[in-house]
Amino acid sequence: MRTRRIIYAADALILLLLAAGISGQAPTQGGPLTVLSRDGRRPLPTVELQGRQMVGLDDLATLFQLQIREDAAAGAVTATYKTQTLVLTPDQSLVSASGRLVSLPSPLVRQGRRWLVPIEFISRALAPIYDVRLELRPASRLLIVGDLRVPRVAVQYDDGPALLRVTFEITPRANAVVTQEQGRLLVRIDGDTIDAVIPPAPAQQQMLSAIRAVEPNTVQMDLGPRFSTFRASPPVSIGAASVLTVELLAAGADSSAAPVAPALPVFAGAHRPTISTIVLDPGHGGDDNGVKGAGGALEKSVTLSVARRIKAVIEGRLGMRVLLTHQDDNRLDSAGRAALANNNKADLFISLHANGSPRPATRGATIFTLSLDRVGEDARRQSQADREVLQLFGGGTRDFSLVEWELAQAAHLDGSHAFAGILDQKLRTTAGLPSVSLQRAPMRNLAGANMPAVLIEMGYLSNAEEERLLTSTEFQGSLATAVTEAVVAFREYLEQGPRTPMPPTPAAQAQPPTP
Amino acid sequence: MRKPRDFFLYAGLGTLLGVALLVLFFLGPRWLTTPAPGAAAATASPAADTRKIHARLFYVNAEGTGLTSVEQEVVFGEGTVQQAKRLVEAQLATPAPPLASAIPQGTKLRTVFLTSKGEAYVDLSSELRANHPGGTTNEILTVYTLVSALTSNLPAVTGVQILVDGKEVDTLGGHLDLRRPIEQDLRWVTQ
Description:
Chain A is of the alpha+beta class and 515 residues long. Chain A is 26% helix and 34% strand.
């Protein structure tokens, strides 16, 4: 009797193992890719197989006019487009594309009578031999065929008690226009269509009841019962993206600003409306020369000289306290520079550098703000979520948020971007720089700064003409004036909040709301 | 003497075992040898030494402010780590004009290793810092040459951390934060 039970149990175990083995092979259906072309949209079915998105060769053959042939003798499958042939081998991750090997994340597999390939086959193997541009965007499940303009649009929300700020980051740069009609706002973005990532609208303020992408190139915001009016900024170019900010105001909120008042991001945690202390950071120093110009000028000398001039002008004209991270030709590590600003409770941190490029002709100034990776983005969200208002001894309140020391800048990026935008204009108009660009990068000495912070590359020492300019007293004086004017404008911006108008970028447009 | 019922039980067990062996014989090998998601080509071949893959390598663009990608043949490497080494070595080689490399002359690859999260640690020789010309743009171009080469060609690589002489470094020349793996950022690639 006992023996029989053991045998039954063994039978059941074997059946279970068989079932598991077979189900391990079974594919599950994935969502289809959307194929975008001048002819419209159409779905391209995909299948999920062991965590990989696969697509049928037969579907690709129909879509892209491929001739699929099985070569039993060679144990291969060929896909021919016009005169070019792709050779795939079952269970191998390599594709021979007209004699060259292309790697795929998973091999060609057979499913019933169909052959399946990973979706990356389209971009890596098919696109190089195809006549028309093929762009695969796995994250948004799009396959773009031909020269369609499909900017990526990422939407973010930033809410206050009577205000909801909606930021649209459009990559690559494209113009956008905001209009109001029948209980909704429409953001029309230049492009044939858009690739939009739109998180659900925050519900608590009841200013935005829904938001969605509407064909072909519009984001539609359905307005909620508390909505009163809105302000829209012209798109601002930041790196490769255009950033458009739309502010929705609740009934009863201060809407005295002009209807088209461009809304710069509010400086997060702006508990002190004015600037009292500025830290200037002359790049490099000591045995760290930085860039060496073709004519022998050293970056460390240029930056220290300009920093001293800026300090003199700001202290003389504005009466603010200005500190340098190092007064003389000393070496200081990156962490120490931001720490000096933090320990002195500075309101603004400006790092001064001169640039270098492998191409001697490269010229122009660049203003850097910090870009965040995933860890930094988490820190930024955490800083917003954890913000608390605490009562101060003797009255008043102050915002507090806990952020890791080395990522302190994450909580101040809005202010940094605002100052960078102002500085960009002043360098062009006051210092007469013909070329200034705004960039974001993971800059080491900005990461720990617990205040708005920028790094200015004032020009290229590797360019002979700019080297002469950067070492000239006149130019250094005009840079000092431009930075001082930018500080004044930023102080006004902080005092007046988001109503402070910024001159629009040349390509920017924003239409006022209809009355 | 055994009962006939026991005989049928033993016969049933034997049949099931036979079917199980047959199924595993035909399906098992494919099931067991399917590469993990994201793994690079790992097919053994006697001609591996001479095989090449078609890869995107990155060089300084004409404006000197970004990178341009160029399709080139790179020596085939068995698995992600070996292929990563071959790609880095290809990037360290001096390119033929008019291409210009953002990697300082004399830099040598010490090793590459890959974490389970797909972060590639690229250990380079001290020439990377000692011969670096300085400047934020130069530093961005150097770092994103390596980041782009690995993340663009190897889907299993999610980020790249640069080590110098086996040690973590703050920056190359005082600008870019190298304390954590750098993620792909195509803003620095102009095509």
